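ARCHIVE CARD
Drawer: 12
Card no.: 0347
Subject: one protein chain, sequence and derived structure
Cross-reference: see card 0346
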Amino acid sequence: MEPQGPAVWEEILKNPTVKSVLNTTAREITRSIFGTGRRRRK
């Protein structure tokens, strides 16, 4: 186990830019998986 690992992830996750990119990426992946036509939950 490298003690460097968790610290690096903490620094990355602290970055608001990285967070927004991750959110956008997750949204795009979810869209591609479920399809854009599924908007009936709201």
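Annotation on reverse: The chain has a mean pLDDT of 82. The CA atoms of residues 27 and 33 lie 10 Å apart.
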